[in-house]
TrEMBL record:
Its main location: other. Residues 58-302 form the Calcineurin-like phosphoesterase domain. Pfam families: 5_nucleotid_C, Metallophos. The lineage of its organism: Bacteria, Bacillati, Actinomycetota, Actinomycetes, Kitasatosporales. This is 5'-nucleotidase C-terminal domain-containing protein. Transmembrane segments: none annotated. Belongs to the 5'-nucleotidase family. Its cofactor is a divalent metal cation.
């Protein structure tokens, strides 16, 4: 069983393993036995040559694991496979970690994560909702990460999806600290989680090397999980908190300052002007906050082996690396230090990422989680009803297809049932995104995994009020998803979508109104023939819009919706509402809900007639 840690703030008992001594953000320490340098290993550890003492060590990094433990796809009920040949799962990462430790010496390697650990797969959902860790179960990610001897992890925004109680229980089950210097208690404005930890690496023939690890999370949590954190926590900017804690780590005598940020490195934000803080700010932190040596980056699900930013104040280069999500990659930071007048100085930092595709799954990790995995496989293969015909999501990004109408139908059904008598008189519509192009609900038996593969996020349901003019603005924003294709130019679906790096989960279609999207027109002038029940939508007409909580709270930066009046809200996951619908009706028939109400055009001519 995992070791139980402190409840929260300032209570500092962090467990140290191997050759490291860990200090919590509150400053207490626990010593552990020193490791010994393996004979014949020259490249890592301490070296004494020509009057110089140097020390080389590594920090390994993962991010956005999203509860991928084994190399398995719960939606297809098969070994994970994609077009690029990648593999997933922390069990494969564990093999690479052990290879690095064997080559470099366990005492010369730290292991850190950059967040989004406990949400993202059916396994994650099972241990949050079906057999929740708050009622005695142990999270498989805690089992695996403890066995791998992680030294620290940053909080990701998806850590808050199931509520703070689930997150606190996961924190208790981890033998390493969950760090979040900019995750503050809403009342005291003090860190609600440990802001940092310090690891002391033993060096033979020289003083310990003190490595300060500062964790920063994403300020977008305040919007995306507003229902779970409002009034309880506040999330400030990464730069602001890094400016506070990096000097503190230096004052504690840290020779190396390493950040683990659940924040991308391009300075962008998906929530528009709803918050004064930047979502993807790791590059800005590196540029504006002196004293940082390297940053493990997360959140954006891209593979960036190495990226260098020059600090504006010191002129020093800061090395950043982001490993691909789901355990597809492992970042490796190599540090070389030199002892100069009794203090360690960082001479160089390099970074790269390693692929897990060809790695075997670690036997110990597999054995730890196999029983949990088997339970989840049984759960997701449970049949809940039947479907009259196959419904595919393959073309959902450019055609109005029945599988998307299923989502809209369930959203509107539940919002309608929960409206006040006054709001029930308003026209009701729905917006939703095509999360997965591989989603498919087959003809015949329908299982939980078939529905989960269509709606892969743990979003809950809202009803919000928009005027007709605001709805048109909303749809114009969505239409930016398409590249402009002039009349007379052939439409290629391979290049049509994801314009402006607007990913599929950011693109909403609407049901309950009819409209056309002219991909030949300029952005902002693409929506035409916007009608409700055959009549043109008036600018002042008020609609109730069924929408998920992520979008309702400002996710992806859609206009008007975050500030719109709430007509309905629920804590039930939309995916579960869809499962419940099929369970209750016993069957799924597109004839009951499928309506073609929108289409793409080029100068008024349908693109896909």
């Amino acid at each position: 069983m995992p070791t139980t840690r402190r409840e929260f703030l300032g209570k500092s008992a962090v467990t140290a393993t191997g050759a490291a001594i860990a200090l919590s953000g509150a400053g207490a320490a626990t010593a552990s036995a020193a490791g010994r340098e393996a004979p014949g290993r020259k490249e890592f550890g301490a070296r004494h040559e020509h009057g110089r003492t140097t020390y080389t060590f590594s920090i390994l990094g993962t991010t956005d694991l999203h509860s991928h433990v084994l190399n398995w796809d719960y939606y297809t009920d098969a070994v994970y496979k994609d077009r690029k040949g990648d593999a997933v799962g922390i069990a494969k990462v564990a093999t690479l970690v052990e290879q690095q430790r064997a080559a470099k010496g366990h005492e010369n390697v730290l292991l850190v994560d950059a967040g989004d650990i406990i949400q993202g797969t059916s396994l994650a959902y099972y241990f949050a909702r079906v057999d929740p860790i708050t009622k005695g179960a142990v999270h498989p990610m805690a089992l695996a990460m403890n066995a791998m001897k992680y030294d620290a992890a940053a909080l990701g925004n998806h850590e808050f999806n199931y509520g703070i109680d689930v997150l606190r229980k996961f924190e208790e089950q981890c033998d390493f600290p969950l760090l979040g210097a900019n995750a503050l208690d809403a009342t005291t404005l003090k860190p609600a989680f440990e802001p940092y930890t310090v690891k002391c690496l033993r060096v033979h023939g020289g003083p310990h090397v003190k490595v300060g690890i500062l964790g920063l999370t994403n300020p977008g949590i305040a919007l995306w999980d507003k229902d779970n954190v409002s009034g309880k926590m506040r999330f400030t900017g990464l730069v602001e908190q890094a400016k506070k804690y990096v000097p503190r780590l230096r004052s504690l005598g840290c020779d190396v300052v390493f950040l683990t940020d659940h924040s991308g490195l391009d300075g962008s934000s998906s929530y528009g002007d709803s918050l004064p803080y930047v979502e993807n700010a790791s590059n800005i932190v590196a540029e504006q906050v002196p004293g940082i040596d390297a940053i493990l980056v997360g959140h954006t699900h891209v593979d960036v082996p190495t990226y260098t930013v020059t600090n504006a104040e010191t002129g020093k280069d800061v090395v950043l690396s982001e490993p691909f999500c789901y355990g597809k990659r492992l970042s490796v930071f190599d540090f070389e230090l030199e002892l100069v007048r009794g203090r360690w100085r960082v001479n160089s930092v390099t970074a790269d990422t390693l692929t897990t595709a060809d790695a075997d799954q670690d036997d110990e990790i597999v054995s730890l989680v196999q029983a949990d995995h088997d339970l989840v496989v049984k759960y997701v293969n449970t049949a809940v009803g039947t479907c009259a015909q196959d419904m595919s999501g393959a073309e959902a990004c450019w055609k109005d297809v029945p599988i998307m109408d299923f989502i809209h139908h369930v959203q509107m059904k539940h919002v309608a049932a929960g409206l006040s008598s006054a709001d029930a008189a308003l026209p009701l519509i729905s917006v939703a995104a095509p999360f997965s192009r591989t989603a498919d609900i087959p003809a015949g038996d329908v299982s939980i995994r078939d529905i989960a593969g269509l709606y892969i996020y743990d979003n809950t349901l809202y009803g919000k009020k928009l005027t007709g003019a605001q709805l048109k603005d909303y749809l114009e924003f969505a239409a930016k998803y398409y590249a402009q294709v002039p009349v007379g130019t052939k439409v290629d679906t391979a290049t049509l979508t994801n314009n402006h790096s607007m990913w599929d989960y950011m693109y909403d279609t609407a049901a309950g109104v009819s409209y056309e999207i002219d991909i030949a027109a300029a952005e902002g002038s693409r929506i035409s023939k916007l009608q409700y029940k055959g009549a043109d939508v008036a600018d002042d007409q008020v609609f109730v819009v069924a929408v998920n909580n992520y979008r309702a709270n400002g996710g992806s930066g859609y206009p008007h919706i975050a500030d719109a009046e709430i007509a309905y809200s629920s804590t039930d996951e939309i995916r579960q509402l869809m499962i419940d619908y099929v369970t209750a009706t016993g069957s799924l028939d597109p004839a009951d809900f499928a309506v073609t109400n929108w289409m793409l055009t080029q100068g008024g001519t349908p693109v896909f007639p």
